[in-house]
Amino acid sequence: MLKYSKKNINGKVRVKIDQIAYPPSVYLDTWALFDFIEDGNLADRFIKILNNLGGTLIFSKISIIESMAIDNQEQIKNLYKFIDSIGVEKIAFLDFNFTRVIDNENNYKKNNGQFSKISPSIDIELLYALLEIHKPENPLKVSEIFLAYRQDLENGKVLNEKWEEDLFRDYQKLIFLYNFLNLF
Length: 184
What we know:
The chain has 184 residues and is an alpha/beta fold. The protein has helices at residues 30-38, 40-53, 61-66, 73-86, 98-110, 124-133, 143-154, 163-181, and strands at residues 2-9, 12-19, 25-27, 56-59, 91-93. The chain is built from 8 helices and 5 strands; from the N terminus they run E-E-E-H-H-E-H-H-E-H-H-H-H. The strands form 2 sheets. Strands 3-4-5 form a 3-stranded parallel sheet.
């Protein structure tokens, strides 16, 4: 759940976003997401079930980046409609970088089991990116982050993030570990 609030402090709007993922938490792979945007009835059924269960739909940078494969304008429109019809209160962002999540969990252990107020698996960078692009005078829509990535891609610009480097570094670690384990 993205909990969104705005405050007017001395004429300046301050925006705050908190995140809580209520179970059941569902992560859809890209193909399932594509199925929902192609079949409105299926999407409506999914949203109704998610609402009835009080669950959370999880997105990651991978979800957002893989959605860039959609080049049909009608499907893009349906994707944004699907995401926004779920509502911010039913969506959370997951950090796909497992080494960063493990580091966060290790910090949890060092702090005698006291998490900071943030779950180790939350993608803080996506929340910050959403805050940066969101215009406080408008209602918050999760499709804003999908749209921002798409616009950056179409403009030949990549958002100022290092996800590719993180993913490549993790891939290298896995290859090393695989080769090491095959020595025995």
